Amino acid sequence: MKLLDGCGDKYKKRHDAIWPELKRLLKETGVEDYSIFLDEKTNILFGVLKIENPLKLDELPHHPVMKKWWAYMKDIMESNDDNSPVTIPLKEAFYLP
């Protein structure tokens, strides 16, 4: 994902005040240990999370609260036509269990 220039503080502020209903949805979906990192030079965001069943993530875009969150965030990050953040799938290059 990628932030628009100058939006790092807004992004952090919005996530520091994450909506209880969004937090609940993520937990109910099985998301745990979720972190998002920002490269301040490129504005690239990198999310890392643990989930027992990764296929459950495919359900999130259909939930109204997820759509509402994306609409709330679209003014500060690169977004698709449906307001979801633009993402790039990454290939795992290394893993140490």
Q: Which structural class best describes the helix and strand composition?
A: alpha+beta
The best one-word shape is globular
Distance between the termini: 26 Å
Run of helices and strands:
HHEEH
Low-confidence parts, pLDDT < 50 over ≥5 residues?
A: none
Q: Largest sheet, if any?
A: 2 strands, antiparallel
SS elements, strand count: 2
Spatially, the strands of the biggest sheet line up as 1-2
* Percent helix: 25-40%
pLDDT averaged over residues = 96
Rg over CA atoms, rounded to whole Å, is: 14 Å
Q: How big a fraction of the residues is strand?
A: 15-25%
Discrete helix count: 3
Textual characterization of the structure:
- The chain is α+β, with helices and mostly antiparallel strands.
- Helices cover 30% and strands 18% of the residues.
- It has helices spanning 8-16, 20-29, 64-73, and strands at residues 31-39, 44-51.
- It has a two-stranded antiparallel ribbon with strand order 1-2.
- A hairpin with a 4-residue loop joins strand 1 and strand 2.
- The longest helix is centred in the N-terminal third of the chain and has 10 residues, at 20-29.
